[in-house]
Design brief:
Layout (H helix, E strand, L loop, with lengths): L5 E5 L2 H12 L4 H15 L9 E7 L7 E5 L15 E6 L4 E6 L9 H12 L4 H14 L1 E2 L2 H9 L1 H4 L3 H7 L11 E2 L2 H13 L8 H13 L5 H6 L3 E3 L2 E5 L2 E5 L6 H17 L6 H16 L5 H18 L3 E2 L3 E8 L4 E7 L39 E2 L4 E4 L5 E5 L6 H13 L5 H6 L3 E3 L5 E3 L5 H8 L5 E3 L11 E5 L5 E4 L7 E4 L1
Parallel strand pairs: 11-14, 18-19
Antiparallel strand pairs: 1-12, 1-22, 2-3, 2-13, 3-8, 4-5, 6-7, 9-10, 10-15, 12-13, 15-16, 16-20, 17-18, 20-21
Length: 506
């Protein structure tokens, strides 16, 4: 990167532009990642919000170790006794509909704002006010709604029209905004400027925190000021796995993703060691085995193929309820070699805007598999498990790759396949991201994109009604946004076209 300041990849042009602006202004990769994260709240509001949570996988230049900042959501400390406001809606994905649960009772304690401030204090150079500027400016001035975001509006229309407060932002005049129309959220812009000035206490005992607690009490939520006060960002050591000589830094427990991806890599390596080809059929086997490992809590297959420590990580992840839905991701590597992979999620939002602050709280307590006893049986005061997988790959020649994706339970499959494309097949970053993907459900059903070799497609189709051939690449299979810095200083990026991805070398 001798003549560049860095490389950025994300799910929206404005997100990439915000991060690039900060790199151009002398910020490092972590400054740029935070600017991108704030912009996702504005430009990718279906996926991310100050009312949600996320993870940053960070590696300082020259270090052989990464750090995981866990600012994911947490279950409330107490369950309200008089019943929570909690109701189902159905999102329309075209071929299928999915039930979500919204209302104030669906919201877990948010961690996004405490997390971004903890990252800023630990890793950043520029003032927080500077990092918020691009997002606040876009929210205030407005921007044309992209075709992809407009499509997402239609998918979760019941959530974006659930209350007058949310309709005011996403469906002014009673109709959902369409592609090309100017989207503004001035209240959110003001909120972001305010928090940059006052700090994270604004979301605890300041005006925003008080609004969260008061509305929760009045409208059937579980959250109180004590939940906001007691929340803490967790700093964790990544789960490391080696594959083809590369060190892969993965999201550790209580997240479920890292152990499962490591298990998949170990499975592929076992196939290769026994003389098998790492091809589409091997990937199908690995993905099916990952499901089995998940189902068995890491026993049996995990111990045989990935060792006892990995099995323990799988078991630990299963002790926590799971929240695996709407997610976006930003990857940044700067000229010095600092690397940031940040994944953020708000679920789909709870359908109600907090005060006049322009954002919804998450609906993470609406996960079907949150607790075996049902949707209202979550364990209080517990950091939720997540399938989000911000990942760094450090190769022996000094090449480093930052990547991550949205895609619910398809996240682990997408990261495994892109990592394998890079490390097993030596693909360029763009080719590794664009290559066709498959996904294996728990019941053995296989969904696959076009472009696999004829022999593999024939094998998939032989599954009969458990074979789901997609006519084109689709957001169902995730959106891997990745940045890469080579050992010689060269840079490349990839924004996944499945989710409106964009990249830029600055």
């Amino acid at each position: 990167m001798s003549n560049t300041k860095g490389v950025v990849a994300a799910g929206h042009e404005l997100t990439v532009s915000a991060a690039a602006e900060i790199l151009d202004d002398g910020g490092n990769a972590f400054d740029a990642a935070l600017a991108g994260a704030f912009m996702t709240f504005v430009a990718e509001a279906v996926f991310a919000s100050p009312g949600g949570g996320g993870f940053l996988m960070a590696r300082r230049a020259g270090s052989d170790k990464a750090t995981l900042f866990d600012c994911f959501v947490e279950t409330p400390l107490k369950r309200r006794r008089d019943g929570a406001a909690f109701f189902p809606v159905h999102a329309d994905f075209g071929p299928a509909k999915q039930e979500f649960h919204i209302g104030l009772g669906s919201s877990a304690t948010p961690g996004a704002i405490p997390g971004l401030f903890a990252i800023h204090e630990a890793l950043c150079r520029l003032p927080m006010k500077r990092l918020v500027e691009p997002a606040a400016r876009a929210a205030r001035i407005g921007f044309p709604l992209s075709a992809f975001q407009a499509y997402l509006f239609t998918v979760i229309a019941p959530i974006l029209t659930a209350s007058a407060s949310v309709r005011r932002i996403f469906a002014p005049g009673g109709k959902l905004m369409r592609a090309g129309e100017i989207f503004r959220n001035e209240e959110l812009g003001e909120c972001l400027e305010w928090v940059a000035e006052d700090g994270p206490r604004l979301f605890v005992d300041g005006d925003v925190g008080r609004a969260i607690a008061e509305e929760s009490l009045a409208q059937g939520g579980h959250l109180t000021e004590r939940d906001l006060e007691q929340y803490g960002v967790a700093i964790r050591d990544p789960l490391y796995w080696r594959h083809q000589g590369a060190a892969v830094a993965l999201n550790p427990p209580p997240a479920a993703s890292g152990a499962l991806i490591a298990f998949g890599l170990a499975y592929l390596e076992a196939i290769s060691a026994s003389g098998g080809a790492i091809d589409a059929l091997a990937l199908r086997q690995a993905l099916a085995a990952m499901n089995e490992a998940r189902k068995r809590h890491g026993k049996d297959l995990a111990e045989r193929l990935a060792g006892g420590a990995l099995a323990n990580d799988l078991r630990e992840a299963r002790r926590h309820g799971g929240a695996y839905r709407g997610t976006t991701h930003v990857s940044v590597i700067d000229a010095e070699g600092n690397a940031a992979a940040i994944s953020l999620s708000n679920g789909e939002g709870n359908g109600f805007v907090v005060g006049r602050f322009g954002f919804m709280l998450n609906n993470m307590l609406g996960e079907e598999d949150l607790a075996s006893g049902g949707l209202d049986a979550w364990r209080p005061g517990t950091r939720l498990s997540s399938m989000m997988a911000p990942t760094l790959i450090l190769e022996p020649d000094g090449t480093i790759t930052a990547l991550g994706t949205g895609g619910s339970n398809r996240i682990r499959a997408a990261i495994l396949q892109v990592a394998s494309n890079l490390l097993d097949h030596g693909m360029s970053l763009e080719r590794a991201v664009a290559a066709p993907r498959l996904h294996v459900e728990r019941d053995g059903a296989v969904s696959f994109e076009p472009g696999f070799p004829e022999g593999a497609e024939t094998a998939f189709r032989a599954l009969g009604d458990k074979a789901h051939a997609w006519p084109e690449r689709n957001l169902f299979f995730g959106g891997v946004h990745a940045a890469r810095r080579h050992g010689d200083g060269g840079a490349e990026g990839a924004g996944d076209p499945r989710r409106g991805g964009v990249f830029r070398v600055v």
